[in-house]
Amino acid sequence: PESPPPPYSRLSPNDEQKPLDLSDSTLSYTETEATNSPNVTPGEFSDASTSPDAVKRSHWCNVAYWEHRTRVGRLYTVYEQSVSIFYDLPQGNGFCLGQLNLENRSETVRRTRSKIGYGILLSKEPDGVWAYNRSEHPIFVNSPTLDIPNCRTLIVRKVMPGYSIKVFDYEKSCLLQHTAELDYADGPYDPNSVRISFAKGWGPCYSRQFITSCPCWLEILLSNNR
């Protein structure tokens, strides 16, 4: 392969969430590639989504970054098999949330943004889409394939630092029936989207009922099943 596989691909597939060896040399391959790239100097941010080679390939998802109900920045289009989504790194290659400016941020958002750190590694695998929590704080995830079938209660999974989770299962997605009749109070229902909140949870078990109440969150819009 052109690049090392995500470290969790070598672990047992039996557990829903998998712990990772933080000393794994492949953990930071994204930053290593950025350092060795002739187009990226140390400390420079590289937007891989707009490179000439990337435009020729079809994308598999778009990523939107939100702060409460406000989308910040443009959609980030992903062409590579994996992408790092982080706050700020001296040698980063991926979606840098720290560069997205917004006037009059609340103190709550500022505190949460400071907890994103190394963020997540999002990877497209043969069995689905995986998210690995590289930050020092938990992330919270919801997607159609993580919900319990025929259950009207929103299921939000908490993923601790150093763990990964299959945020979207291709096979299960194909088996799921259309659920347009369900009434989702927090907005339109998209069967091909994943929502990930940094540090703050939402849903029935939290004071925040809707993800739009979370300070910093991602919307992963998958294109493979559309």
Automatic annotation (TrEMBL):
Pfam families, A to Z: MH2 (PF03166)
UniProt keyword terms in alphabetical order: Transcription, Transcription regulation
GO BP terms in the entry: anatomical structure morphogenesis; BMP signaling pathway; cell differentiation; regulation of transcription by RNA polymerase II; SMAD protein signal transduction
GO molecular function terms noted in the UniProt entry: I-SMAD binding; transcription regulator inhibitor activity
All copies of domain MH2, residue ranges: 60-226
UniProt region (Disordered), positions on chain: 1-53
Compositional bias per record (Polar residues), positions renumbered to this chain: 23-40
InterPro entries in the cross-refs: Dwarfin, SMAD-like_dom_sf, SMAD_dom_Dwarfin-type, SMAD_FHA_dom_sf
Gene Ontology CC entries for this record: heteromeric SMAD protein complex
PROSITE patterns: MH2
Name of the protein in question: SMAD6 protein
Encoding gene (name): Smad6_0
